[in-house]
Amino acid sequence: MASWAxxxxxxxxxxxxTPLRCRSAWAKLDLVSRFPHYAxxxxxxxxxxxxxxxxxxxxxxxxxxxxxxxxxxDQVYQQCLxxxxxxxxxxxxxxxxxxxxxxxxxxxxxxxRNEVPDSLRWFEKKWSRRNEPLCRSGxxxxxxxxxxxxxxxxxTIGEGQTPLIATDGVARYVGTNPGTLFLEYEGMNPSGSFxxxxxxxxxxHAHMIGAKRAACASTGNTSASLALYCCSxxxxxxxxxIGSGKISYGKLSQALDYGALTIQIAGDFDDAMHRVQxxxxxxxxxxxxxxxxxxxxxxxxIMYRVLESLDWQVPDWIVVxxxxxxxxxxxxxxxxxxxxxxLIDRIPRLAVINAAGANTLNSLYNGHNLRWNGGRxxxxxxxRYYAELDAASSKADTIASAIEINRPVNLMKCLRxxxxxxxxxxxxxxxxxxxxxxQVGANGLGCEPASAASVAGAKLLREEGVIAPSDRVVCIxxxxxxxxPTATVAYHTTDQEEFNRVLGKRGVSxxxxxxxxxxxxxxxxxxxxxxxxxx
Length: 535
Ligand code: F0G
Known about the structure:
Blueprint: E1 6-7, H1 10-14, H2 24-28, H3 31-34, H4 38-44, H5 61-75, E2 76-80, E3 88-90, E4 105-109, H6 133-136, E5 155-156, E6 164-166, H7 168-174, E7 181-185, H8 195-208, E8 213-218, H9 221-233, E9 237-243, H10 249-257, E10 261-265, H11 269-283, E11 286-287, H12 293-309, E12 317-321, H13 326-340, E13 349-355, H14 360-367, H15 379-391, H16 411-420, E14 424-428, H17 430-442, H18 452-463, E15 473-477, H19 485-492, H20 496-502, H21 524-534
Parallel strand pairs: 7-15, 8-9, 8-11, 9-10, 12-13, 12-15, 13-14
Antiparallel strand pairs: 1-5, 2-3, 2-4, 6-7
Bound molecules: ligand F0G.
Residues 193, 195, 218-222, 290, 321-327, 402-403, 448, 450-451, 478-479 line the site of ligand F0G.
């Protein structure tokens, strides 16, 4: 079967093994001894116990179950987030919630058995080996910091080649000093959003356990990413759930082009998320939404690349849009682990920015003072809040369709990240997002509306004095400009009706940074005149 995604063979990996403490323990163990529960979980997923011929290392797994469990649990395992439960599970198990108490799960490592470099500079060794896909990938070149996958099961499509760009134009807009404002341009990923960082990790795990179908609910970017990994690797079929009319054409077109089975349901993202969890359980389909803890392992690497681009110096602020809260959760875990490993000496502050029309986190965090509280947040606050949303039939509503989410599945992990990172939460209006987006575009980058929440949020925090003018601030641009051209064109249009139709109903009343097309007759003189007048 033709495919261009790279699925590693052990032979290829051998060139990655360096003398420097590079996961020697892993290299000695074969797949079956590391992942003894394959057979069981293949059957739980409704898959044949005997693996496909192209996965010979899985064969016979059932023979090995009793012998090697301790090796697995010692090196890498999944653990329930709740301190009152803390149940642990094998890395070969597929869960999107703790089967005992329903909380989210983490992927955790015994770092003593997964030797890590002494310094982040060690990763620079991989720069000269960019011809090797696992060194080129912006996710897997940091594999020592997410060592859950046997290298021969890693599926990479060259994700994470994303630059961190200093832009003084945006710094001026935000109100920080020249040289202090950086944009992490995640729109440069193969599917055009940060999702590929997490998808390569979840997809790799799905491949490890032998899944043949993978599903997600999506506001568009997760589905585009999943569809791309499926069609480029030919390893799985993508089944995507989207809310009818809730996805931009740029994103929908990707899923369709990449051949995903696209289930359009009458409802919004929250409804789609609810359904996909039910359906994937019933049909044994592997779920890749960010409730999947392996997704977040991949998304940690966005922060490693930020540090790499800053010559391993820690910035003062990371500012990120908040939707399902996977990124913020992953970033918190990345910094917490790096700090615990002694690889950074301080943790940057985290700012999570909601859209005002989808502001559950902001309402709970600032309005109701909900906190992580050592893993025991006051759940009654959350339950009450959701009951009120239901009673009022309140639905998320923002031009930033990517973050049009009222029930963020990673709320708990995000609260923990905010605790670890001395974080803050804010909300910004659609007007603020679109103005910030126009500034990002005018300064040569470009992003979709949701991404601009980070820049709008940084500006707000600067105005409040929370961010100082001299602070080094990294805003995450989560998705590419071309994902949602409708919003961009409506902002710049001269057609008042179009403006009102797309933006007016969202409370956007002006376009301070619009670059309006000049309309002229098809006449040489008029064209020349128009250019002279406007240049
Ligand atoms: N920005 C973009 C462009 C997104 O697509 C998303 C999420 C977010 C921000 C929010 O990130 O969930 O980590 O807080 N999009 C998901 C999707 C929901 O289905 O594509 P988060």
